[in-house]
Amino acid sequence: MHRLAAQPDAAVAFVFEDVDHHLAPGQPESHLGYLRLRAAMTAAVTPHSAAGEAPHARNAVLCAVGDVGRLPGWFHLEDPRVAALHIGPPDPSERRLWLSWLLHDFNGAHESSRADLEALVGATDGMLGWDIESLTRTSRMRKAPLRKPDKLLELHRLNVSVDPWTQLDRETVAGAAEALGSRVVGQPVAVNAVAAALQSAFVGVDFGSSGTARPRGAFFFVGPTGVGKTELAKAVAELMFGDESAYARFDMSEYQQSHAAERLAGAPPGYIGHEQGGELTRRVQERPFSVLLFDEIEKAHPKVLDKFLQILEDGRLTDGRGQTAYFSQCLIIFTSNTGADQVRSLLEERDRLSYPLLEAHFTRAVEEKFRDIGRPEIYGRLKPGVVVFDMLRPEHVARIADRLLGQLAESVRERHRVELVPDTDTLHPWITERMSDPAHQAYGGRQIRNELELVRSAVVGHLLVNRPEPGSRIRVGLGADGRPWVTADGAGPFAGEGSVRS
């Protein structure tokens, strides 16, 4: 190869493919191979048969590589006789030419117009040549006509034959508000907003097709802590997938550093770990039909927020490997506690804080937060999906307590096969009175759970000391002195250690 490239008698050209794989970096035998290859590249001359005006091309030695970062730096740098040429995806003129050759292979090509072809040229921006050619097979196999490029590309990218949203049970979607409301107590505004988004995604009717690449729904849940923001995301996942753990949760407190954006979309090429992709992009590529929860979004670094703006606007994100994740089938939920610190002082100033006042407070707090961090455009994009959660009202305390006590009873039944019966006549007034304190109200449902720890401890003490027979029943309640009691049905109250009375 070196002798032929260095002789002027005949014009020759060599093309070596996948050099970075054949000559693996770090291998002793690869070093000699790169030396010989560089010698051939630098010793190439211009053939005598070159015609036309000077300067004339030399006998070229071309190396095609997937990642120039895998090559030794001395091999291709600091030598004017060696040039690195980046070959990117086809530009519009190349895509137009390629699609015109393939036009008759598309489904419904005879019904398409020049405008349909131009629409597909624009829609295939960023796609590689072989990927463009495979569109013809998708069009035929999925019966997607050329005149609907958005639908064709969605079927091709997501590799689905039917829209998964249409596979949801119609009656379940129609009754989404009732189903979600049974899980999330006292939040009719939030529940109705999410139910409406699910129904809209199911029906699939919108203003034109310009927004088909965007997520099916994007919400920004804001409000006091412990009022059901994360619980509503779990309820949506259970409604859609039948499993509340089927949603993906990202804790934004873990993304406070500037380099955290690389965790979502993957490190750039040449950096350690870039071949693994990002946590978010990998999840969506594996499960494009997803509920994504980004908890406490206000704690994320501004560079991470920029990634979310791209997702909300374009509906896609490209990882460090060059693979694109599409969010058009996703439901995205952001949660934030911005403004929650002032709820306690607001409660102390007024006997009753109405929902309109609470809504105005949190809306203003969120807008100021995004303005302070220099990202008002993100709030502008999220504003239609901002949902302010109401604070925990006294009339909802007993229902939430009943849910927690029901979970406690289910745990006792599964573990010990014993029926636990809460005495609501004593428990309801007690928990309602405890939650009337503004300091407790500020923590929402989490504080109810904390208060009921007293009851749980009494039940644990009774089970530990008395060892009730499987199939028996026990009751738990509170005495006038505020101390819990546990008793077997038909027996006197159990006198245990510490947290129970006789």
What does this molecule look like?
The C terminus is likely disordered. The protein is α/β, with parallel strands linked by helices. It starts with a helix and ends in an 8-residue tail after the last strand. The protein has 23 helices and 13 strands.
Fold blueprint:
Layout: H1 2-5, E1 14-17, H2 19-22, H3 28-42, E2 61-64, H4 73-76, H5 92-102, H6 114-123, H7 129-141, H8 149-158, H9 170-174, H10 176-183, H11 188-203, E3 217-222, H12 229-241, E4 248-251, H13 261-265, H14 279-286, E5 291-295, H15 302-314, E6 316-318, E7 324-326, E8 331-336, H16 343-349, H17 355-372, H18 376-382, E9 386-388, H19 394-416, E10 419-422, H20 424-434, H21 438-441, H22 445-451, H23 453-466, E11 473-478, E12 484-488, E13 493-494
Parallel strand pairs: 1-2, 3-8, 3-9, 4-5, 5-8, 10-11
Antiparallel strand pairs: 6-7, 11-12, 12-13
In short:
This protein has 502 residues and is an alpha/beta fold. Helices cover 46% and strands 11% of the residues. The protein has helices at residues 2-5, 19-22, 28-42, 73-76, 92-102, 114-123, 129-141, 149-158, 170-174, 176-183, 188-203, 229-241, 261-265, 279-286, 302-314, 343-349, 355-372, 376-382, 394-416, 424-434, 438-441, 445-451, 453-466, and strands at residues 14-17, 61-64, 217-222, 248-251, 291-295, 316-318, 324-326, 331-336, 386-388, 419-422, 473-478, 484-488, 493-494.
